[in-house]
Amino acid sequence: MKKWLAVLLTAMLALAAGCSSNAGGSSGGSASGGDVPQELTYASTSDIVGLSPIGTNDSVSSRVIEQVYETLFVRNPETMEVEPKLAESYETPDENTWVIKLKEDIQFTDGTPLNAEAVKYTFDKFRDPETAAPRASLLEPISEVNVVDEFTVEIKTEKPYGAMLAALSHTNASIVSPEADQSQDLMKEPVGTGPFKFVSWTQGDQVVLEKNADYWQGEPSLEKVTFKVVPEVNTAISMLQTGDVQFIDGIPSDQLKRVESLDNVEVTKNEGTPMYYMGFNMEREPMKDLEFRQAAAYALDREAYVNKLNGLGVEGNSVIGPKVFGFDESANESGYSYDFEKAKELVEANGYGEEQLTILTANTEAYMMMAEIAQSQLTEAGFNVEIESMEWGTFLDTTKEGNFDITFMGWSNSTADGSELLYPNFHSDNIDSSNKVNYSNPEFDALVDESRQNVDQEVRQQKLDEANKLLVEDATAVIMHHGVVTAAYDKSVKGLEVDPTGQWSLYNVSRE
């Protein structure tokens, strides 16, 4: 009797163990062998602004928008060449005309068709002054958009626009469903053609997406994606360690070693398109003096600075970075590399240390580090400089008004096109707006104009290289570093690629 009872108890325990194992596998998977759920949570330090590509212009919102919407063209993350996406092909019958053939049989997630009418609707609304699209300047050169037939659209410009394909690959140029836009608020309920579709947005907490089972390239592996708001970076890293989130990006340099030490985490680092620079107010003395700017450039030991970034920065004199169209390695040989003796000689010969000058900086960690290192090195060379820091919004307003001597700025280069770097930041058209250093050089302006108003990419490359070298020699912007884009993700995440602009798609991502 006791033997029979023992056998029965053994069988019951084995059955219970089997049920426990099966339940564990079906409810979320584990390292012990259950299936990993096809779900992913990404931690963002702030909430989105909205979910319409027309109504937004911030990187946090773009992270979500890029999963729901698609553009006519896309930049290949490996070659950085622009390739068709929703477009099938294009031609330019003349320098002011772009004829784009669309792929057929693609639908928005509301069931309506992607066609030439949808493209025209999107771009017309994007360019309409009444819309007040934050990134309207992206398509400003377009004069009209015409429907040729159901799947052919014609784009006309007043002048040639060489960066057209780069502009049409920008997230904010994503195509929206006209019917959805007219019947609902796309800022809150997006409708695109992408691999994921919208489920919910709990403001201040999270955005939830689910897979688009009818996606035209085939349904994605991930069933569900959550964009979780985690304001503190330390908390996000802890959640990555415990598995509560599976993906973070934009890792601060001072947290990199901690993230790299996590056993369950993979870290990627790739040279990117962002650039950061020390700029001078060209409307003030002595900053408008070339020898002053040369002395300051010579005084900066940028190699020592970049070494403090723990591998998250690339040194170089070229304003156009290695991952941006228009870059030529020879530009790094232009300009002024660290030479303490030359810096000190120029300061003494011109009396640059006699007047106290102010380095204006935003009070973020990265910019404060630039300012403090620069202040120390400039002071050592004989300059008399102090730091004034401001909250980000106030800093932007102050620099726009020209109320500074020296400052530090950055540009993300999300189009990865040199024209869309040099024109807004340094062309005289944009003095008192985005050209915050007030740089004005007719020769430079003409070269940048030629780079924009030419559809021959070889000519554009040449003009951008010439303009870039001229800017470097003028020392208007002394490059502190070119950015490195980072991502950290759980080792169960497969297929994730982050391109040099910092953008990523979850379409090819799975969990194993």
Automatic annotation (TrEMBL):
CDD domains: PBP2_Ylib_like. GO terms for cellular component: ATP-binding cassette (ABC) transporter complex; periplasmic space. SUPFAM superfamilies: Periplasmic binding protein-like II. GO terms for biological process: peptide transport. Residues 1-23 form the signal peptide. InterPro entries: Peptide/Ni-bd, SBP_5, SBP_5_dom. Keywords: Signal, Transport. It holds the Pfam family SBP_bac_5. Residues 81-431 form the Solute-binding protein family domain. One of its GO terms (molecular function) is peptide transmembrane transporter activity. Belongs to the bacterial solute-binding protein 5 family. This is Glutathione ABC transporter substrate-binding protein. It comes from Rossellomorea vietnamensis.
